[in-house]
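Priority: medium. Attachment 1 of 2:
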């Protein structure tokens, strides 16, 4: 039987002596024999094939666990290599997506945002109240659920001869506990709806925004949406301006307005923050909340 000491075996296989010792310790490739007095390791010629396979897998990046599986079942080596390559490809795809997302975020940070202070007249409105967990609020960032609620409210207002008079807006308020938020999806109207106004399946709020001063951050669509999962560039500019003015940030005073053209197609977004007038946390609105016909509270 041909026996090779660890140095010779390392030269034949391309594995380092350090790696051979590690594979022995991990039970991946044990030497054929170990001298009981000197502790020297010796390998047989029959182990060359396994050693070459192990080196090839390690060079391909297969982790030690996968190499151990291949050493225990050499006929599965190709299968294990393919599985590893698929994991590597999936990780690369995820990295590419993350890089593209980062590129979009960086581009958004360079996007020009217009900031101004506007004087706004009093404005009657009607809104749909949606209580959701903070995590579920992301779903309402998508167009479809919000569009359905806005559409149902528009139809209900039109049925009372009180059609919306301008662009819709949404507001986020504190919910029933720290894990929930309340979304208010609102339309401006010519007059405050009557006390009996209701919308099946929803709670509604009607009221009047008083005359006020607002900081407005405006952002126009340029053909691409802002990066998902990142703070909107208009929101960044607005919060920076609020901080510059040494004001506390009260989400109840913030309205996100969907800006549309004459056909109703979205062309941009405005974030309007009512400058506080020194009253309570609900400054900037007077409202009453009404249950719907389904008896929700």
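Attachment 2 of 2:
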């Amino acid at each position: 039987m041909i026996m090779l000491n660890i140095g010779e075996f390392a030269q034949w296989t391309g594995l380092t002596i350090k790696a051979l010792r590690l594979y022995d310790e991990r039970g991946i490739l044990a030497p054929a024999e170990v001298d009981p007095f000197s502790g020297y390791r010796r390998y047989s010629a029959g182990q060359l094939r396994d050693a070459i396979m192990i080196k090839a897998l390690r060079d391909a990046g297969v982790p030690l666990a996968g190499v151990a599986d291949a050493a225990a079942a050499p006929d599965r080596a190709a299968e294990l290599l393919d599985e590893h390559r698929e994991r590597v490809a999936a990780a690369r795809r995820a990295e590419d997506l993350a890089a593209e997302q980062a590129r979009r975020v960086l581009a958004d940070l360079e996007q020009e945002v217009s900031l101004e202070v506007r004087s706004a007249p009093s404005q009657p409105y009607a809104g749909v109240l949606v209580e959701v967990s903070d995590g579920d609020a992301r779903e309402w960032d998508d167009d479809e659920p919000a569009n359905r609620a806005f559409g149902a409210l528009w139809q209900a207002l039109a049925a009372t001869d009180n059609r919306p008079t301008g662009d819709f807006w949404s507001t986020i308020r504190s919910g029933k506990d720290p894990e929930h938020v309340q979304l208010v999806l609102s339309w401006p109207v010519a007059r405050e709806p009557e006390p009996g106004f209701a919308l099946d399946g929803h709670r509604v709020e009607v009221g009047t925004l008083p005359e006020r001063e607002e900081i407005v951050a405006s952002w126009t669509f340029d053909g691409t949406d802002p990066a998902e999962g990142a703070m909107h560039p208009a929101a960044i500019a607005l919060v920076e301006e609020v901080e510059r003015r040494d004001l506390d940030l009260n989400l109840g005073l913030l309205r996100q307005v969907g800006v549309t053209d004459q056909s109703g197609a979205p062309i941009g977004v405005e974030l309007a923050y009512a400058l506080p007038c020194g009253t309570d946390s609900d400054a900037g609105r007077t409202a009453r909340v009404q249950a719907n016909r389904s008896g929700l509270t």
